[in-house]
Write the structure tokens for this entry.
Amino acid sequence: MTPTSPDHPIPMSPAVLSRLLGGSVLVLMIFTLARAAGLFGELSDTVLVVLALVVTGVALRVGMTRAQLGLGRDAIGSGVRFGLAASALVLVVVVIGACIPATSSFMDDARVHVGVGGLARELLLSILIGTVLPEELLFRGVILGSAMERWGRWRGVAASSALFSLWHIAPTLATSGGNAELSTATTTALGRLGLVAAAMASTFVAGVVFAWLRVRSRSLVAPILAHLATNGVAFTVAWFVAG
């Protein structure tokens, strides 16, 4: 028997991969419904982190390797390089967007009206720990890793990105009221439908980019850095603009 290793893992059966994928999606659906119902209150980020760790642990338990989940130590350097390059590109795009009147108005968000301490808490707790890390473990780790094993690379990328897109529908509707530009645009059903469609399209593209970084670098570090830059840089620039 060939020993399991990051380079030569024992192939998992389609049935096990399907159960892992289905179970992961089911967990996310239940969490989304419970969060929308307000069952978690202010603990929703904490619950999501715990769920991400549990699902990742289950994936390892049923036969996924660290390398298949993007957690291999040998790829960390590659992940850092790709992640920093992507982060630099995000910084350029966000700064340009802040300088253009047509797009800078979208940065007028009530959430950025906080002090320096509030900014630090938002970046570290809400964005990095409460959003980026659990989402990357789930979508670019377990879901992408198992989907690629089950259906191949690009079908796996498409599936994980589609789920990532659907995942963002509820948060988009929940937070649009705090954004002056979006709250004005979503006063009608058609406006809300347009917002959801735009959010789904943009997060699908983001999911594809994050997945490509994960595949190309072989490490979750790359999409983690890019995801952190996407959310964190945008929030920080909006904070400076508001100040």
